[in-house]
From TrEMBL:
GO terms for molecular function: 4 iron, 4 sulfur cluster binding; metal ion binding; uracil DNA N-glycosylase activity. Keywords: 4Fe-4S, DNA damage, DNA repair, Hydrolase, Iron, Iron-sulfur, Metal-binding. Belongs to the uracil-DNA glycosylase (UDG) superfamily. Type 4 (UDGa) family. CDD domains: UDG-F4_TTUDGA_SPO1dp_like. Residues 28-175 form the Uracil-DNA glycosylase-like domain. The keyword Ubl conjugation does not apply. It comes from the Bacteria. This is Type-4 uracil-DNA glycosylase. SMART domains: UDG, UreE_C. One of its GO terms (biological process) is DNA repair.
Length: 187
């Protein structure tokens, strides 16, 4: 297991999969490294690849707006990163070999942060972090506890941009995350 600096450098110099060829910036993650909550997305999009910061594009802004309304901030309450640290071409889903090449970095991040709550944003993160058996429409909002960590999946914020009817479920799920967070803090 690497400490933060070495881990960051490993990711920066990574060439374990094809995605390294087209990256402008590696998108490592952002937020409080001692946070109780860890959000995990899929992979960087164009805005993230340009800036090196996760969830800064349209979908990210939507997520940030919802989290800000719940008074959850990157500075204090959560850390956010992705399954893949480099952008897939044309924002396609990461291939299985790309996700598996990158997952050890994510596991290392989680081992350093030791979050009490992990929230998967969308079906790709859900598949690799929680279960291949789960379906996002069926299992979103459902809590499981694994090795003492509460885990949940909700819709990816980009899905809300395509289908407004998902917004109410997304909001419901994030409120459940906030409730769990308060419960944990008061323990
Ligand atoms: N979508 C993701 O899954 N991650 C990002 O960082 C941006 C968009």
């Amino acid at each position: 297991m690497f400490q933060w600096k070495e881990l960051y450098d490993e990711c920066l110099n990574c060439s374990k999969c094809e995605l390294c060829k087209n990256r402008n910036k590696m998108v490592f993650g952002e937020g409080n490294i001692n946070a109780d909550i860890m959000f995990i997305g899929e992979a960087p999009g164009g805005d993230e690849d340009r800036t090196g910061v996760p969830f800064v594009g349209k979908a990210g802004q939507l997520l940030n707006k919802a989290l800000t309304a719940l008074e959850l901030t990157r500075e204090e309450d959560y850390y956010i990163c992705n399954i893949c640290k480099c952008r897939p071409p044309k924002n396609r889903n990461p291939k299985e070999e790309e996700a598996y090449a990158c997952l050890p970095y994510l596991r290392n991040q989680a081992a350093l942060i030791k979050p009490k709550i992990i929230v998967c944003l969308g079906s790709v993160a859900m598949r690799y972090v929680i279960s291949k058996e789960w379906r996002i429409t069926r299992n979103r909002g459902q809590w499981i506890k694994r090795k003492g960590v509460y885990m949940m999946a909700t819709f990816h914020p980009a899905a809300l941009l395509r289908d407004e009817s998902k917004k109410k479920f997304f909001w419901q799920d994030l409120k459940s995350v906030k409730a769990r967070y308060i419960e944990i803090k008061n323990k």
